[in-house]
């Protein structure tokens, strides 16, 4: 038996997700890890709150299985978002919940399930990825040139054939940083769609719609502790779900999906919110500072963002050269390409010192390119 020949065919089209570990990047660039500015994954440069770090230091239940349904944490989250805890399910990052939602609806018999996922690229790649791993038909309805959701195209698609579908939409969207307007969400919710609103970055923007969930049958809101709370490495996200879905979600989820230290750290963060709120305010202030600075960099078009990152389009030189230049300075950014993101890069907001270094390095590259362009003319 050749075991590799038996692998399901859907796997062949997937890409391995294995970004270079930071230690290897540091070795490649000839710098210590501490000498790098990591602005490529929208992480929180300040890390967990003091209370979360204390809870982790005091944690002594490593030999015990954690609470499978994260009761204490779910009830603290319910208070934080302002919905009853019966609507909350905690996951191993919001990534796990994207997968769980799709497993809940993947068709397994005539008339059962939802077969189609609507994705609105450019956006977070995991919707399409988990759609493919769950055998969903993934239909891309691209955003407009200004990165707004193409609501008329979505309405047209749904009206043409009114079978129910699942639509994923991030607000703020990654990578442009725009919020989904209320009127667009209203129009989506009026369609035969299960709308999954991914609010991974909403703490930096304000205006969460989590409290809308109890009023709708077809709205799920996903949130996470990865960004505002600095807990990306512990993997804690949560969903706010319509009550009709909860019993089935409890049956389907992996038993010990959120580990004990992760539950303890997230709970401690919520019990002492002030330090996290101060960090959020600092990041927002520094994002606005960075946006202003980037607007002054020639050959760079910065997109206004409500999140903890700013995306830009490079109008001089090439992304490959820019990347080499930034890496020589020890700066790691996210570089794109492909439809809607040609010549685009995304910068995660760091500490003020890191932000200054990023702006200075971008400016040096752009000015040099502008100068050499003019010399050639
Ligand atoms: C829009 C969006 N949703 C979800 C996530 C993942 O969140 P988590 O760490 O909770 O899995 C990210 C991470 O980059 C993201 O950009």
Describe, in short, the structure shown.
The protein has twelve helices and 13 strands.
Structure, explained:
The structure is a single chain. With 377 residues, the protein is of the alpha/beta class. The chain folds into two domains: 147 residues, Aspartate Aminotransferase, domain 1; 223 residues, Aspartate Aminotransferase, domain 2 (3-Layer(aba) Sandwich). The chain is 38% helix and 14% strand. The chain contains twelve helices and 13 strands. The chain has a seven-stranded mixed beta sheet with strand order 2-8-7-6-5-3-4, with helices on both faces. Strand 5, helix 7 and strand 6 form a beta-alpha-beta unit. Helix 2 runs antiparallel to helix 9. The longest helix has 25 residues. The site of pyridoxal-5'-phosphate has 13 residues, from helix 4.
Task: Give the key terms.
single chain, about 375 residues, alpha/beta, Aspartate Aminotransferase, domain 1, Aspartate Aminotransferase, domain 2, 2 domains, seven-stranded mixed β-sheet, four-stranded antiparallel β-sheet, about 15% strand, globular, binds pyridoxal-5'-phosphate
DSSP strand tally: 13
Please work out how many helical segments DSSP would assign: 12
Percent of residues in helical segments?
25-40%
Sheet with the most strands? 7 strands, mixed
Order of helices and strands: HEHHEHEHEHEHEEEHHHEEHEEEH
Determine the CATH topology of the largest domain: Aspartate Aminotransferase, domain 2
Cofactors, ions, other ligands: pyridoxal-5'-phosphate
């Amino acid at each position: 038996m050749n075991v590799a020949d038996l692998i399901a065919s859907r796997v062949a089209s997937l890409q391995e997700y294995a970004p270079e570990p930071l230690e290897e990047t540091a070795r490649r660039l000839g710098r210590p890890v501490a000498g790098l500015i990591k602005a490529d994954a929208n992480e929180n440069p300040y890390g967990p709150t003091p209370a979360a770090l204390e809870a982790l230091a005091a944690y002594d239940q490593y030999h015990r299985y954690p609470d499978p349904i994260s009761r204490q944490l779910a009830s603290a989250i319910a208070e934080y978002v302002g919905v009853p805890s019966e609507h909350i399910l905690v996951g191993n990052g919001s990534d796990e919940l994207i997968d769980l939602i799709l497993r809940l609806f993947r068709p397994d018999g005539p008339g059962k399930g939802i077969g189609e996922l609507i994705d609105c690229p450019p956006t977070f790649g995991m919707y399409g990825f988990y759609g493919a791993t769950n055998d969903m038909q993934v239909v891309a309805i691209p955003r407009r040139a200004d990165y707004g959701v193409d609501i008329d195209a979505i309405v047209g698609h749904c009206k043409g054939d009114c079978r129910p579908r699942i639509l994923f939409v991030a607000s703020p969207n990654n990578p442009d940083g725009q919020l989904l307007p209320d009127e667009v969400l209203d129009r989506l919710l009026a369609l035969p769609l299960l709308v999954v609103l991914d609010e991974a970055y909403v703490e930096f923007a304000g205006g969460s719609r989590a409290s809308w969930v109890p009023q709708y049958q077809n709205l799920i809101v996903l949130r996470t502790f990865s960004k505002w709370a600095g807990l990306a490495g512990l993997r804690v996200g949560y969903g706010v779900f319509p009550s009709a879905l909860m019993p089935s979600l409890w049956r389907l989820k992996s038993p010990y999906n959120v580990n004990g230290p992760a539950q303890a750290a997230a709970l401690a963060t919520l019990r002492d919110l002030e330090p996290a709120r101060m960090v959020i305010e600092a990041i927002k202030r520094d994002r606005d500072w960075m946006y202003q600075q980037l607007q002054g960099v020639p050959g760079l078009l910065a997109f206004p963002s409500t999140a903890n990152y700013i995306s830009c389009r490079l109008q001089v030189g090439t992304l490959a050269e820019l990347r080499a230049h930034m890496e020589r300075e020890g700066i790691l950014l996210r570089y794109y390409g492909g439809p809607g993101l040609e010549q685009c890069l995304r910068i995660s907001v760091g500490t003020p010192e890191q932000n200054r270094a990023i702006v200075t390095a971008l400016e040096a590259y752009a000015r040099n390119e502008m100068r050499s362009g003019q010399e050639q003319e």
